[in-house]
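Intended use. Records like the one below are meant for learning the mapping from a protein sequence to its folded structure. Do not use them to infer anything beyond what is encoded.
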Amino acid sequence: MGGRLDGRHLLLLTDFDGTLAELAPTPAEAVMADSVREEFDALSEAANVTIGVVSGRREFDVRARVGPSAKFVAGLHGLEILGPAEQFNHQALETVAPIIRDLFDTASRELAWCRGLFLEDKTYALTCHVRLAQPEDAEAGLNQFVDLASAQLEAGALRLQTGSKSAEVLPAVNWHKGRAVNWIRSVVARRVNEPVMVVFLGDDRTDEDAFVFLREGDVGIGIGPRPHTHLIDWRLTGPSSVGRFFAALRAAL
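Structure written out for the chain above:
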């Protein structure tokens, strides 16, 4: 990897759940293993390297989990981004907040029957998790969640994206992890005043938005079996191998 930089600044961007941390039964339980955190922190101190995390979680949630080593943190799939001296918040966030609040209230009542179903209220997005639900209830719970959101989906106020045993509704705007990667790249390029090479790591279909936006010379790394193979350059098996990759990358710089 070191030879591929060719004098460029390395911008390493990564998802959190399923990439830096193993997928957990509930969002609150997902944490970085000590071995991954150690290499993550060490790599952030390397010369000519900037690290960031691009996640579906809220920005403050990700920041609390990864600490100061991540110079950029993008939450809500890039709808909010915070850097050392820069900040981006998509204008759609404020207008969608009351819609999400109403949907959360309705879904909390209507889905109370589904034991193990968890609604993750992100203020500007709402995720329905069924990882802890019984298999016979999980699909029905997700389908009902989508039905409850159908009016706002059809009106174009919200859009739907599905994940691993989850469904999420968020503002229906053309902004996603790929556009967040480009925003961060442009900020870093201005700051370092040299070309930037992006390495992006991600494990699920929302990360494919970022892989599509990578440029010639960038590197896309899929974690686990989910990302489409034609969009990535390499594949790692899981978070533990991500930690080892960080160690190998640091040694090669």
